[in-house]
Design goal:
Length: 553
């Protein structure tokens, strides 16, 4: 176990070792809060040891260190102070709750690797027309000699096989750092939400009809098994690095991607460091599986060295914990990415839902060889990191009440805008689409209503420009980007499009509509000519009873 209960707990609580240059008795490790003087100290630290938290305003970090790590903090100019409560909590032996027979011991809200994979396979069995479970490679332990079991690197793909492609792809990666409990459960539940909502929820239905969602539910399954036992395991388990039995072995998979690998002081060349980048770009089989799959989704990349044009489809999300941050490229430089304004707009939109702090990744500290910068810088698609929650081993109460619900909404928005992620987030969001009555006779009018909102952004780190809503329109069965789509205009309910939030409506004739269920798509445009993403509602059309023919026997 990474953290051990130590005899010095009483001394720690008393503050005996608060800010001391010398570490407490014993070998640690300890969870510490360490103050610093200037940003360069954080970048130098993060190249060796991953900070748990960084507060650039209050000038402090939270990190776990052993005796040598404490001394390294002092060498870098930090003043460490032991967090006794967190040290003791992480040192507790892992035990199942009374009656618990499934999930991670002590954390019944988080499925194990095997349970997660079983859940994905269950979706395939329940929805064979929507779900595909694919083997894209092997974990390090499965490739290694010596009889280690290891895992297949599996991808869950969701899309309706009844609707032909090509379709824009959203790729959601999770649990690349093994100790981050909440991440795989968020993505697994989101996959279940989409698949189980198909046919009953209008947005889940059109998303899977017209888009693809790909899930790497466990990007580091070998490491995750160690974390499930209570170890603060971050890297993969490659025994060629730092000794075959060391708890510091392995490579940091989120520093091993080939784009800007080892370029900028954002990773370590020392095999025992937490941020060790591996022996070579994409040296780790887990990274190879993710990279290769992303390349099949987006084979073009930056065509001719040019950055992605504004209408580029596709998105990559890497779900991490913790820190309540929403980050976009670049992480390796303070230079703003070519699509930086559009990435910022979408980042602020995501952060509206989950209340995270939105910013360019490098603000926290320098990183290189990351998934996020690879997906954007190499494959040319919009790319973001979610840092969810307030702990690696997040309590289930917070997960169920806040973390999953808020991030679920952010992921749903991602699935809605993946067709044009650099453009659609600047336009109004359509909310509360309602067709009344929801069941109508052929020829009977119905009232379609919705709200168009152009102001739902998180402005905690700058202010996102907003405009008045200028127009709204609906489409019957065929979405606005498809051939043959015909717009049905909606009017402002108050008589004028002159505010950033507008209720809109139209009375639609159903004359000529076929019998059965229909999907009504609604979208809105602002005064800067930005169209937002669609939202949808179902309506059922039936033949009046008096016109139906009956056979009497």
């Amino acid at each position: 176990m990474r953290l051990r209960c130590l005899m010095v707990c009483a001394l720690l609580v008393s503050g005996r070792f608060a800010g001391a240059a010398d570490p407490p008795p014993g070998e640690g490790p300890w969870v510490v809060r360490a103050t610093f003087q200037e940003r360069g100290q954080v970048d130098r630290l993060a190249a060796e040891i991953e900070p748990w938290e960084v507060d650039h305003v209050g000038k402090s970090v939270v990190v776990d260190v052993d005796r040598d790590g404490w001394r390294r903090l002092v060498e870098l100019g930090f003043a460490p102070e032991v967090d006794a409560a967190r040290t003791e909590r992480y040192a507790r032996p892992r035990a199942a709750l009374p009656g618990q027979v499934e999930a991670i011991p002590g954390f019944p809200c988080y499925r194990t690797v095997e349970e997660t994979f079983s859940a994905a396979q269950a979706l395939v069995l329940a929805h064979p027309d929507l779900a595909t479970w694919m083997d894209t490679g092997d974990s390090w332990e499965k490739t290694a000699p010596g009889g280690l079991a290891g895992y297949d690197m599996m991808i869950l793909r969701l899309t309706s096989s009844a609707t032909p492609g090509p379709k824009p792809a959203l790729f959601i990666n999770s649990a690349i750092h093994a100790r981050e409990y909440a991440t795989a459960e968020i993505t697994t539940r989101f996959a279940e939400l989409l698949a189980n909502g198909y046919g009953t929820d209008p947005d889940a239905t059109w998303i899977l009809d017209h888009h693809e969602v790909h899930f790497m539910l466990h990007a580091n399954p070998d490491g995750r098994k160690r974390a499930e036992a209570g170890q603060l395991w971050r890297k993969n388990t490659n025994q060629n690095y730092c000794g075959a039995t060391s708890n510091n072995r392995g490579a940091d998979l989120n520093r091993n991607f080939p784009f800007q690998w080892g370029c900028c002081g954002g990773s370590s060349a020392a095999p025992c460091d937490e941020t060790f980048r591996g022996a070579a770009p994409a040296s780790e089989p887990e990274v190879q599986a993710t990279r290769n799959y992303a390349t099949t989704l987006w084979p073009a990349g930056w065509v001719g060295g040019n950055p992605p044009p504004p209408d580029t489809p596709g998105m990559f999300l890497d779900i991490h914990s913790y820190g309540q941050r929403l980050m976009w490229p670049w992480g390796s430089t303070t230079t703003v990415a070519p699509n930086g304004i559009a990435l910022q707009t979408l980042g602020r939109k995501f952060a509206f839902f989950n209340n995270h702090n939105p910013h360019q990744a490098v603000y926290l500290y320098v990183t290189d060889g990351s998934t996020r910068d690879f997906a954007y810088g190499d494959r040319g698609v919009a790319s973001f990191t979610f840092e969810v929650g307030t702990d690696f081993f997040q309590d289930c109460g917070s997960f169920e009440s806040t973390i999953y619900p808020t991030n679920r909404q952010a992921l749903l928005y991602a699935a809605r805008v993946v067709r044009r992620p650099f453009e659609l987030p600047a336009g109004p969001e359509v909310l509360s689409v309602l067709a009344q009555p929801s069941v109508v006779n052929v020829g009977q009018p119905l009232t379609l209503s919705a709200t168009a909102n152009d102001i739902r952004f998180n402005n905690s780190n700058g202010t996102e420009p907003t405009q008045n809503v200028a127009a709204a329109e609906a489409y019957l069965d065929t979405p606005p980007w498809a051939p043959g789509a015909a717009a049905l205009p909606l009017a402002a309910s108050d008589g004028a499009f002159d505010e950033p939030v507008e209720d809109v409506q139209a009375v639609l004739s159903t004359a000529g509509w076929t019998e059965g269920r229909h999907l009504l798509f609604v979208r809105a445009r602002d005064s800067a000519n930005n169209w937002g993403p669609v939202a949808a509602a179902f309506v059922n059309v039936q033949t009046p009873v008096e016109l139906q023919s009956f056979t009497i026997e």
